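Appendix B, Record 12. Input sequence as logged:
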Amino acid sequence: MEYTVELNGKEYSLPTFKKSVRKEIERVTAGNESKKESDKKSLDMYLLVKKLIGDEAALEVFESDDMEEIDLNMITVAFIRICAAYDKPINESAKVDPFNGMNEENKRLVMGVINNASALQNMMDAPRPSVVAFARGMH
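Logged structural output:
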C-alpha cells in the first residue's frame, strides 16, 4: 500500500506501515498521554514526523529545524494527520455498502422487512400487564 499525508497544502509520501512504524507511533502516543513535559512530547512528535516524511520535507513543512522556531501546533497537526493517513485504508474498508449492486425496488423491500421485524420486536418487548394483575381485575 502507498501512504501519503497532506501538510500545508502539499502531499508527502510515507513509508509502508510496518511493525516498526506502528511501534514508534504507539510510543509517541503513549508519551503524549503520560505526564511527560510538553517540550519532550513535542520533540518526540517532531522527530517521528521528520523520520517518516524525511529531513527535507520536514524543513519545508515546519520552515525551520530549530524547535524554538517551529509552530508547536503544526507538529501536533502533522502527527495527527500521519496517524490518520495510516488508518485511512482500514477506515475506508469498513465503509461497506450493504446494498451494493441492489436496485431501488429491492432496497425498499429489504428495508420494509427490517422495519416490520423491528416493529414486531418492539411489540414483543412492550411491557404487558402480568397475568396476576389481569386475574385480579376479573374478580
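The helical segments are 19-32, 38-53, 55-62, 72-93, 104-125, 131-138.
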